[in-house]
């Protein structure tokens, strides 16, 4: 009798445990494979997965800059369902949000963020001068930009003020900025009637760009875009490619000298040796003979601690603080001209910590002024295009590129172009 009682109790316990197990297996659940998604500033897509037992939907009230596909579904408890998240192009500061997944009695969040995506505008310039009592024909205010790729047309509004603003107009317009980089060209119309300063305040993509210029006589009749100096260093072939990360050509054997300065032998032989960090020559303007410097297309240039690399120069050394290279005087300019100084630069990157602060400073010597001159320009290990505007350059103007006044300031320089603009 007692055994029968225990058997009944055991049976009831088994049924109870089995019932609880079934209830637990059938309990609703909601799972996702991540709780964080990150997006670049451009339009892009990421995915996450959902697995649930029952219907689910997505709430985007905390992330109105993304869309999802699908936005709802029904799970069978076994199969995963893939959701694609599309982030729209960000034109502002870094933004954050949250995607909420909702099932019958559970919720789960996926935090999302997108990097800052403000369009970067360069220095605006005019294609023709503003001269009193001369009609503005085929005249544009040009605004260079990077980080474009905007699918929709961009509205541009311009306000013009100042003593010299009478008679000058720029109509409100919509512009195409679908390229990654390019130029916005705003037609400038009318006829200036009064000499004096003019301020253009340009509203674009939530940013205000201010351009200060003046109605005045121009310094010469050269067309905008006239190139006064171009130096691509294409005649330089020796040395390791520091940016590209490869060893380079070097003279086999020792350098002959003339008057204590190095020259090439009559029949030079080149071999690949060294590393990406190895210079191809000594200091071009202090150890190399002027005839060698001239053969490199650098006659009239000046500098200190400048070394040949394949298609560019390295300026400064690890222990120095006075490296620089300077152009010849801009003798192609007659009268005076506002000019754009464009160049490509990168910093030395042999030591992550020691080389991180290398900069280049552009100086304007003898004639001309620039709001951007004398300021340290930050550099990265990769090539990047830079530019400054110089006002009132003349045939005496010299442009100097100088390393920072500290050790470990080495930088690399290429593609110098100086051309006329109207500021």
From TrEMBL:
Gene3D superfamilies: Immunoglobulins
Protein name in UniProt: BACON domain-containing protein
Signal sequence segment: 1-22
Transmembrane segments: none
Alphabetized CDD domains for the sequence: BACON (cd14948)
Keyword Amino-acid biosynthesis found: no
Lineage: Bacteria, Pseudomonadati, Bacteroidota, Sphingobacteriia, Sphingobacteriales
Keyword annotations from UniProtKB, A to Z: Signal
Domain BACON: 58-115
InterPro entries per UniProt: BACON (IPR024361), Ig-like_fold (IPR013783)
Ion transport in keyword set: no
